[in-house]
Design brief:
The protein is an alpha/beta fold. It folds into 2 domains: 199 residues, inorganic pyrophosphatase (n-terminal core), CATH 3.90.1640; 119 residues, Diaminopimelate Epimerase, Chain A, domain 1 (Roll), CATH 3.10.310.30. 38% of the residues lie in helices and 19% in strands. It is built from 11 helices and 11 strands. The strands form 2 sheets. The chain has a 6-stranded mixed beta sheet, sandwiched between helices. Bound molecules: manganese (II) ion. Manganese (II) ion (MN) binds next to loops.
Length: 335
């Protein structure tokens, strides 16, 4: 499975072996997802957590923010492994950070990187800073759950339905419903279905369920969208803002869905959604169709991500942020 992915198979084999040994011998394991976890992050943490608990380890799963588990992801935590950050051990024997490119993305739990006896980083972000003592980092993997499954195979863990559900949740979301999945990844998905994952139920809960207020929010936000054909090196930029007033009682899931609609504009290579997080504070999501590397633009602006999906945080007026973004996209490499 790895032949089409890892650049150095021998090194990968060594890292996988070391990670498996580390996890195999741990009696207490703290698994941490990035702040505002998505299905890949929480699915990775919970699948590995379920497997390790079944093997007798004490397991905690947590994330720095928000205080509550996102609604659409609650169904993944069948064994109540998720605890609030203040219940995570002060000095974990083994800390596993999943789907997290940098320690700052662990939020209030980032200090555990220093207090843990060992830190395993499992991730697929190209911008990963390798901040652990052990690493399973492969930017060629479509999702972190792919790497978790590889680790589970190395540990000879048999998949059950709850684990398969968690892994499938990360796979279906991070591959945009398998549009960006390599042949081998479809084979992995087949294994997860055989282990009991229900693709229709998982996708409906994760992707196709929103409160009624979502429709009014979309009306306002999409009505403000603007197209700049000359931007993004002449390939086109479409952008809009999501203001705090637009999303009053809505969940992260509703806000996160906006970029997937904005990016459908055929005239634009790049889509940007500026989400207001406070007065003159923004969290910006970037998507590219195929020709521009938006992770380079995001990195230049202090963020990170993948070639076709990236983001950054910014301060200033929306127009200030757009100005900086236009300049960064003008310098972004084509692929
Ligand atoms: Mn991911």
């Amino acid at each position: 499975m790895m032949t089409d992915r890892a650049q150095d198979r021998e090194l990968w084999g060594r890292e996988l072996g070391a990670a498996a040994k580390l996890v195999d011998s741990a009696t207490d394991v703290t698994l941490v997802a990035h702040v505002h976890p998505d299905a890949d992050a929480l699915g990775s943490a919970l699948a590995l957590g379920l497997a390790l608990r079944r093997r007798g380890a004490a397991v905690w799963v947590s994330f720095g923010a928000p205080a509550q588990t996102p609604d659409s992801l609650r169904g993944l935590d069948v064994a109540d492994l998720i605890v609030p950050p203040d219940q995570v051990p002060e000095r974990p024997e083994l800390l596993v950070a999943v789907d997290t490119g940098s320690r700052s993305r662990l939020g209030c739990l980032s200090g555990r990187v220093d207090t843990a006896s060992a830190v395993l980083v499992i991730d697929h972000h190209a911008t990963n800073e390798r901040f652990g003592t052990h690493h399973l980092v492969d930017p060629g993997a479509e999702a972190t759950v792919v790497l978790v499954l590889e680790l589970l195979d190395a540990l000879e863990v048999g998949l059950d339905e709850p684990m398969a559900r968690c892994l499938y949740a990360g796979l279906v979301t991070d591959t945009s419903c398998f549009r960006r999945a390599a042949p081998g990844t479809h084979v992995l998905a087949a294994r997860l279905l055989a282990a009991g994952a229900d693709p229709n139920a998982i996708a409906r809960e994760l992707l196709d369920t929103h409160p009624f207020g979502w429709l009014a929010m979309l009306g306002a936000v999409l009505g403000r969208a603007r197209l700049e054909p000359a931007a993004a090196r002449g390939l086109g930029l479409v952008h809009t803002t999501v203001l705090l007033a637009d999303v009053a009682d809505l969940r992260d899931e509703e806000v996160g869905s906006v970029v997937d609609l904005v990016r459908t504009a055929s005239e634009a290579e790049v889509a940007a959604v500026l989400k207001e997080t406070g007065p003159d504070r923004w969290s910006v999501s970037l998507r590219a169709r195929q020709r521009l590397d938006v992770s380079a633009a995001a990195a230049e602006l202090g963020g990170g991500g993948h070639r076709l999906a990236a983001g950054f945080a910014a301060e200033g007026t929306a127009e200030d942020v757009l100005g900086a973004l236009r300049a960064a996209l003008h310098r972004a490499p084509t692929v």
